[in-house]
Amino acid sequence: MYKHGHLLLLTLSKKVRSGVMLSTTGAGFLNNNFVMPALSVSKISLSALTCRIAKRNYSAELEDSDSDCESYSGNYLNKPNPSVEVQKKIQQEAQERLDDLLKNDPDLNKFYKILELEIEVLRQSGTKVPSTIKATEWLHLIKTKTQSSRRRFLEFIWINEMKRKSGKMKRQAAVLLKKSLEEKDAEENELDYGLRNNTMFIRIYKSVMSQVLNQKLITAMMFGEKLVIDCGFESHMTYREISSCAKQLMFSFVANRAAKFPFDMHLCNLDPKGELKRRLLSFFPTMDDPAYPLNTTSKSYLEIFPKENLVYLTPHTSHVMQKYNPDDIYIIGGIVDKRDSKPLSMAKAKEEGLRVAKFPLDNYLDWKAGSGKNLNLNHCVEILVDFKSTNDWEHALRVVPSRKIIRPYTEHDHTPRIERTFQNFEPKFQSGQASHIPDLTYYSKVSQKKRNS
Predict the structure, then answer these.
(1) Residues 307-355: tens digit of each pLDDT
(2) Same domain, 245 and 363
(3) Which residues span the domain enclosing 367?
(4) Cβ burial, residue 406 (10 Å; 0-12/13-18/19+)
(5) Going along 341-413, which residue ranges are E strands?
(6) Is the same domain home to 41 and 87?
(7) 68 plus 92 within the same structural domain
(8) Which residues of 80-95 are buried (b: 16+ CB within 10 A; e: fewer)?
């Protein structure tokens, strides 16, 4: 009767794919070669039990199915990474463009060779120069005329290269540490009891969480409020500023997706062949897919939304935003100006005849001397998301970096500085005798007199 008991378990495991818990009672199978005690297992644990029974008693019958599973998993693992494929395509197009420029312009070809010699001299002299330079970076270098600008750009590339190498080394060290811990655990526990790493709970993968968050964005596309980020300032930014802008847009997308009630974000005036789009593709390789929950277009927001509902958020206006209006569509200027802050967003809003507003930063925050009042794009998005849900500026402005604002007096450590210096001082013993320690009571009295005077 139980000759094909493993087939019964395989059938049961298929029935619980939806995550329904299955309670089984003690039973004996296959001439008492396997005894399954009473327990509650999920579909993962049941699959593990099924595999063990099958391997122990019907290994010959399951060879074909195992090979099919291995071939399926191999095909899945060998699936190309979209981000890597996008980067390869971008670099290939840049290399073709670079070759055409060097072939058609002899003067540019001569300048390119001089740059190669200059970079090699800098590398030999110990200057911070990257080991390899990509085709997209060469296109920017040949447009840079001054040597100081080229050195700053090469140092910028070198810093990014060192960050990548450091991250790779940390990941390799983490893998080796995990492997050593597993080997140590295997040595200490020679006998294999229980289900090992299986559990009665279903594992939640990152891909599943990503699908859940993307579903919220799709719901926001149908019923949520709109938020526009104007990406039409690429010509006013340098290569580093464009790179920083793309990273801030990525953080903005992540912050908006993690919100309870996210916006329907629209990236307007985005040049499809510009550097900003290329940098965004490195973060969102499937951004151009119709199913991706992010709206990107080269059209202006004036062509998509009614003009009377648009409000441009700019720090260069005197009109303060008092409350959130769900009928308004707010626009954030997608610009990073680290060199000099020009009122570009204000000028564009006035030219297009749009309403303007700004956050009431001065009403709720005390700025430090010399700190800029300009906020990152992701901070602006987070402030809008929180203010939309709470309508409370004090709660929404909590995301402003603490380095820009003055902390309240009650949050400061009012202990005298000289007492803070010696409060963690520990005596050192040498040759059986304590070393000389400053008298804290004396310094306390001196500091007290200074405060009283």
Answers:
(1) 999 999 998 888 999 899 999 999 999 998 877 778 888 999 999 999 9
(2) yes
(3) 206-404
(4) middle
(5) 355-357
(6) no
(7) no
(8) eeeeeebbeebeeebe
